């Protein structure tokens, strides 16, 4: 994680919803098919709900039918950190924001070409910036 970025847990508890806090800070998971971005396919960027780091592009989002937003790649390899996670039925890695350490979801090696990766990400860990939004 970015050693210069500090997460104030008390400030996060005030700023995030209980579900966003549980997912990002306590490695929680939202219920399948419940997230606001599961069926969103508008053009834009998906950013970390904690630190606003740009993580995923709508260009790599696809409908995996898994119940969570799925991407076949990240904007840049340095935007996330992967940590082995052997708790699931399939081999997978936990996906963390490289800037603030927020838990985002998991990546599994059953995605579409060319990467063959499925970044299965909780909507609660993301904000969406539409392509045509003014900065």
| Total E-strand runs | 9
- Percentage of helical residues? 10-25%
According to CATH, what is the topology? Metal Binding Protein, Guanine Nucleotide Exchange Factor, Chain A
**Through-space gap between termini:** 26 Å
Low-confidence stretches: none
Shape: globular
CATH superfamily: Peptide methionine sulfoxide reductase
CATH class: Mainly Beta
User: Number of domains in the coordinates?
Assistant: 1
What's this, in brief?
This protein is α+β, with helices and mostly antiparallel strands. It has one domain (9-130): Metal Binding Protein, Guanine Nucleotide Exchange Factor, Chain A (Beta Complex). Helices cover 12% and strands 30% of the residues.
Structural write-up:
Belongs to the MsrB Met sulfoxide reductase family. One of its GO terms (molecular function) is metal ion binding. This is Peptide-methionine (R)-S-oxide reductase. It is an enzyme of class 1 (oxidoreductase). Its EC number is 1.8.4.12. This protein is of the alpha+beta class. It has a single domain (9-130), classed as Peptide methionine sulfoxide reductase (Metal Binding Protein, Guanine Nucleotide Exchange Factor, Chain A), CATH 2.170.150. The protein is built from 2 helices and 9 strands, in the order ααβββββββββ. The chain has helices at residues 9-15, 18-26; strands at 44-48, 54-57, 61-62, 70-71, 80-85, 92-97, 103-108, 118-121, 126-130. The strands form 2 sheets. It has a 6-stranded antiparallel sheet with strand order 3-4-8-7-6-5. A 3-stranded antiparallel sheet has the order 2-1-9, with no helix packed on it. The longest helix has 9 residues, at 18-26. The protein is globular.
């Amino acid at each position: 994680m970015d050693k210069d970025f500090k997460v104030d847990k008390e400030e996060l508890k005030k700023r995030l919803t209980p579900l966003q806090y549980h997912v990002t800070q306590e490695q929680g998971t939202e219920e399948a098919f419940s997230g606001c971005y599961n069926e969103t396919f508008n053009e834009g960027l998906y950013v970390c709900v904690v630190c606003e780091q740009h993580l995923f592009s709508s260009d790599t989002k696809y409908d995996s039918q898994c119940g969570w937003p799925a991407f076949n790649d990240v904007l840049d390899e340095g935007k996330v950190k992967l940590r082995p996670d052997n708790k699931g039925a399939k081999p997978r890695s936990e996906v963390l924001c490289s800037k603030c350490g927020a838990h985002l979801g998991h990546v599994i090696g059953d995605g579409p070409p060319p990467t063959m990766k499925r970044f299965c990400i909780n909507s609660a860990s993301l904000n969406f910036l539409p392509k045509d939004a003014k900065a």
